[in-house]
Amino acid sequence: MVHGLQLVWFKRDLRLVDHQPLARALARGPVLPLYIVEPELWSQPDCSARQWAFCRESLQDLQEAFADVGQPLIIRSGDAVDVLERARRQLGISALWSHEETGNAWTFARDRRVAAWARERGIPWHELPQFGVVRRLQTRRGWARRWEERMGEAITPAPTGLTPLSGIAPGDLPTNDALALKADPCPYRQRGGRRLGLQELNDFLAHRVQGYCRSISSPNLAFKGCSRLSAYITWGCLSMREVLQRSREFQGRGVSSFSSRLHWHCHFIQKLEDQPPIEWEDFHPFMRGIRSLDDARFAAWAEGQTGVPFVDACMRALRAHGWINFRMRAMLMSFASYNLWLPWRDTGLHLARQFVDYEPGIHWSQCQMQSGSTSINTIRIYNPIKQGHDHDPDGAFIRRWCPELEDVPAVHLHEPWSLLGAPRSMPIVDCAISAREAKERIFEIRRSAGFDRHADAIQQRHGSRRSGLPSTRRRRSSRLTTDPGIEQLTLDL
DNA sequence: AGTGCAGTTGACTTT
DNA sequence: TAAAGTCAACTGCAC
Fold first, then answer.
1. Is the model's pTM score more than 0.90?
2. More confident: A491 or A368
3. Distance A239 CA to B15 C1' (A)
4. Residues A122, A116 contacting (CB under 8 angstroms)
5. I want to staple A427 with a disulfide (CB 3.0 to 4.6 A). Which of A78, A147, A177, A307 is the partner?
6. Cα distance between residue A414 and residue A394, in whole Å
7. CATH fold of A6-130, please?
């Protein structure tokens, strides 16, 4: 049976291997592979030039891969619905194929407009999952098992020998200027594309995975010792499935620690999939609006000028690399949310732009988790001085990124204000005092009436079944408040 | 050689 | 993927 043109819409899945929408579309008929550069997307406050640069390199790599199989990748710029409608009018479209995307609120709204357009035009839109994230999830029960099932599916090989469509101009990739992106120098950024992603994967599994556990916490080791695959997974140069399956060919603590992180990747994205407003709204209603934006504090934090050396070094390294290890991300967020008491939405947008591997679901879940607003996790306030001593004991990292501290002797490097006699600038906040105040504020809210009732509901909806069982204390107290029989009894007493 | 004591370590709790 | 506090057990040392 002959079908009409199958439009495969590439989003953050910039590869030919393990691309089920592409493979399924090819089984139906001639394929038009399309990437839509959306200027409005790139003007969103969580997007940046460094992300576009990585995406653009990945697209160039994909263009080459398509050229090798005989059909150019088609690039168009503009609003997605406009571009799709033009394609429909000019070429006729029988079906639209893509991966499911759990993006930000903007891409969610855009997908709804595309869905409405497809419905109106009678064009079926086949969206297939590429991660362990489940659409329209009813319960978290059995989630981990489903994740394993999906990740265990056979890898779809790259197609070969496509029949080229004639008379369609391939189109050009716009530059930063054309997208009006703000200058965003990032000298040590990883480069995009599947070729480099595979290189990183092979090198990680062959040489670096053994030392993985030892390297992840220290900013001195992490840039080389971590997998460094996150950006390639975010932009889809590599599929999660192939990364997981390849890594399971190996054994050891490093491999199991790494693959459990792939599992957590999907666990966190699932939260945003289930509840899109968590991008800007605190999970727990009692946590909403508790912090305030202070411009001077925000600027000092964002520019790596807080006066706390380890915090500043991390922020400056992040700006220059477009990446930093997990623990240091958590510390930067913790410092902003607790010590500086800044709203996580504002600081989260800044971090989002810094991350080449920005993945909305992970990012916003983590921002909230490191700000204590989820209510289902215990609050974790990082002490940047202790973190510095633990993970940068000789101060090499601080010296690398804070040249202004050149003449400070090693013993004072983590807290140069302790160097008596020198007119050393004080940090913008006292770490110990501000941490204690933040802790008191959070626990005051957590003690307030009705807090646990919301927290239990959040745990029910978003908590991991595997490890996130409510604490004994909470379980006990929630039984008291949710079981009407016992509640009556306790009220009587 | 046993006792007292300051200091350390580790498990556990609290915030 | 926190940090600080508590407490008991332990250690090294002086006497």
1. yes
2. A368
3. 41
4. no
5. A307
6. 10
7. Rossmann fold (3.40.50)
